[in-house]
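Lecture notes, structural biology module. Today: joint structure prediction for complexes of four components.
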Amino acid sequence: MPIWLYILASVIKSAIVLVVLLTAVAYTVWLERKVVGHMQNRWGPTRVGPFGLLQPLADGAKFLFKEDLTPPHVYRPLYIAAPLIAVIFALTSISMIPFGNSVTIAGYSIPLQVTDVNTGLLVILGITSIGVYGVALAGWSSNNKYSLLGGLRASAQMVSYEISLGLSLVGVLIMSGSFSLRDIVNSQGGHFWGFIPRWNIFTGQFIGFFCYLMAAYAETNRIPFDLPEAETELVAGYHTEYSAMKFAMFFMAEYANMITVACLATLLFFGGWNGPLFGPAILQAILPVFWFGAKIFAFLFLYIWVRGTLPRFRYDQLMAFGWKFLLPLSLANVIATAIAVAW
Amino acid sequence: MLSVHLILFLAFGAVAVAGAVNLLAQTHPINSALSLIAVMAALAGEYMLLGAEFLAAVQVIVYAGAIMVLFVFTIMLLNAGVEERTKGSRVATMFGIPGVLLGSVLLGWVVLRHSGTEAVAAGALPGAPAVIGQLLFHEFLLPFEITSILILIAIMGAVVLASKPPSAPARKVD
Amino acid sequence: MTPNLNLWLIPILPLAGAAINGFLGKKSSRTAVSTVALFFSGAAFLWALSVAWRCLSMPLPYQEYLAHWIRSGSFSVDFAFYLDQLSLVMLLVVTGVGFLIHIYSVGYMWEDPSYYRFFAYLNLFMFFMLTLVLANNYLVMFIGWEGVGLASYLLIGFWFTKDSAASAGKKAFIVNRIGDFGFLIALFLIIQHFHSLAFTQVFERVAPIASETAGAGLLTTIGILLMVGACGKSAQIPLYVWLPDAMEGPTPVSALIHAATMVTAGVYMVSRSHVIFERAPIALTVVAIIGTLTALFAATIGITQTDIKKVLAYSTVSQLGYMFMACGVGAFSAGIFHLMTHAFFKGLLFLAAGSVIHAVGGEQDMRNMGGLRSYIPWTFLTMGIATLAISGIPPFAGFWSKDEILWKAYQESWIYWLIGAVTAFMTSFYMFRLLFMTFFGDYRGLQVDDHGHAHAAHGHDAHGHGEPHESPWVMLGPLVVLAVLSTVGGLVGIGNRFEHFLAPVFGSEFPQRVTEGSGGAELLLMGVSVLLALAGATLAYILYVSKPYLPQKIADSLGGFYEAVLHKYYVDEIYAAIFVKPLIDGSTSILWQGVDRKVIDDSINDAADGARHVSDEVRHMQSGNLRSYAGWIAGGAAIVIAYMLWLGVSR
Amino acid sequence: MVPLSYYLVLSGILFACGVVGFLIKRNIITIFMSIELMLNGVNLSFVAFAAHWHALAGQVFVFFVMVVAAAEAAVGLAIIIAVYRNRETLNVDQVNLLKL
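The predicted structure, tokenised, for the full assembly:
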């Protein structure tokens, strides 16, 4: 493949992924409001468009046109940089996610992935770990005690749970023997007894998945671990002082992170785009992407479901849970997996 | 001719040096910390150029993502402000800094003059995670285990040091 | 495929006993301590017996390799053991007599407060002695050599609170050092010229060398130096002075170390090195002369001594002289034969003397004894046998071995024989003198009161009332066993059987210097020596039983000579004047006042003062400021870098 | 293709910056960061040498340096917090009681 074609393909892929991601982010927000509304015996957004489907557009317009307020006594450079950091790293990490097998267009095999890196999983972890700076710096630069507390909580929480997150993935890595997300997905093809798919969650990584899920909730600051922005204690936590588009950036970063995490869960534990293939060739090409999207949707729904169901932890409970329960559990999972594989 | 490799090297190197100089120039520790993160990210890029992809990832995850977060966290926790201009040590300025400059100039001269012109190709030594893992868990198993103990001790030490000294325990009255 | 004999067990067992008693003994009961000590020494003896039994059916020498010790280029020394007929004899003597004396000590030392320490030392001695005997090279032998010296020092000074015991220990140690010095130089010469210390290799490399008949050469030097070492350990002229003083130790120690085993290490070493000595006739002559003179010299002193243990000590020196005389005339097997029988009867003599001392409550002066025959019949009986044995009355053990030596000496030169025979006469005389003064006549002792050092050792209540009393059976048992051995032990020498047994060690390459002499001459000499022994006994009977006033008269008539002999020819005083006093004076005036005070002390004080002054200045560097420390480091690093570069550039 | 010496010079510059930072900075946290900068500079030369000599052990050493740096950061920052709690300052020029 000539280099220019390669670059062209990458640009097109990036553009598609970005558009899809942003749309997904917008409609995840809509979905959340809708689902939580129904859970609480309300309707959720209904006014803008059918079933309130145009509500995200209206929200976007509102964020764009509201006054961008910079409070006095903030540390301006970082106050401005923080939301950018948050959103940029949240959007970047999606570029490593493969969302289907390669397709063949005009004789060229093009992988359905923005960049295919051998150590894709590590890169995602690295980018995610940088994302914490957005939250921490936002909290610090706002020069507000609620923000600072939120930022402190966020950085401590994210650093703590990053360990469990990483360790919960090690089991999968041991089983697949690769850091490449594509390889990991490919290693999950096939079935047991012809009908149970050979997904990692069914091949002994249930505890790993549980740890991953818990750590992922904490990493994305979602209920029940949303202490950095606990409304009842800290007003709005680290983004108390933010408004308009800067606030929207945090918002987008949070939901983009949710989607990334859901993608990862799908890829690592639920077989990625593996699923039943049938029908004509064109359907066979589309179905994997469909299965992938459906699994992500299921995860996002789970996120919202949990949010609508569970109360928030206390901060000391959060830390105790992370260090005293989740970390040992994920370590035990690593050891058990290693022994099982070696044996 | 400027190859892609050299251009990338120079770009990352420029970022790294700029970050390092900015670290020195800034008076507020948080700016220094962010500069250091930039240096580390640029170095991760250099590692990639040299083929050490695993190290690059670990550099970002461990250094930028964990160690520097600790620094930022500490800065936030202690609410460290702009550096005070106190009159410090004469030795450091009169003896130390000229020493550093002299030493680096001498070393740079030697390195440039005598290390030859053999070039290092991009990705010259692929440090794939699997290979590094093989090395770590076979040849370097003992150091690996020892460092793990070191880390454990460091964790305990950090907890002991940073935890508040316990107030005198209330005497039990029988 | 030779079977594995596990020789290492033999030394290790006593070491284990020593360790257990040394570390745990303080808290243990006496019964436990003696059980441990007896078990380990007895086990060593039994193992040695089993080794001997198995040796009958296997080719000797047998070597056992344990571990590397020194590796330096082509030179190497291993921990390894070597067993041939010679070391087998020594092995059995050491473990057997050692075990008996352990048993005896249980009774003898029972009241001592440092009971456990005694047995720890005694077992330690066994370990080193067995190492010495079993060594397959000179260096391991030297370990044992030094180790037995250490054990000897510890045991001589066992009652270290007593000044004379402590200084006797020191004396033994220091005098032995002089001998060890010669031994060490001999070892260095061997390393330098033969590049090995292993017996087999050294002897292989020595064997082709022609005998140094013309003049003193390398082998003569080595031989004489080895003899210096042997003189120290085996108490030969001029280094014998420590042995009589060593009698300050507990009597079982005197029996085990200073009669039966350790002092014979020199004889063993010379015999072991016979390959070297045979090729160095001058060295051999030196050995013979030293041995002969020592035998005579010590015997004359022995006649005049009144302390029962001192008599035995000089007797030991004298008998050791016999053994060296045997070695010196090339009759190594005769020397070893005498070594063995001597171990039996001299061990017995000392143990019996201990029993006597025990009986009279710590008294050692024979003038305060007498008439003990009826009080302690078993002791008298066994001691009588030992006396007969040492005097050379047939058929007791001493007769066979002594006669063998005299016969071999006669073949070398009639002078040796003459002196040896005179010595035999004297030996008989002073031994019977001892016997008569102790056991015959009337009891001259005071009612025993609480004086004498031995009281601490065995002042049990029987001493409270003055009757001399027989020792317990735990002490008499070993006496009886040794008495039997002293009686029949010499029979193995009939018809040169012992010599044949040792022939693989000594005879194979040794030119047969001894022509099969006419049986008549041998019988004649035998008769003469027996007659001399009987004459000595008779003379002693006349002087000390029937006409007890005579000795004083004779002594008076001899005047100065008697005085000289009584005071051991003033050798100690001469040594003190020649060596000790100049050493002390020189040390005091030059080393202490001059070197130590002026040079060493002052330099140290000046250094300390200088350090304080300098640091007074330099401490300002310690400003407490982190950055200035960093500055020092950075500047220093720059200097180091610059220096290294300069080194690189200038090269 | 980049000569090895370029990497070494870059590493040296970073290291020298770290040392200078140690010398001129007063805030103890910044000083600590200078140490990390020095470690990073050294790590770069490790990796460069590893590539130059084709010895992966160089990369493993970097891994160990990172682990030790993490341990050091944990303890060091804990010490800084303890110092701040006792002395209420982060200025090293004012933390100089340890002297004669």
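Point to remember: The longest strand of chain C covers residues 62-72.
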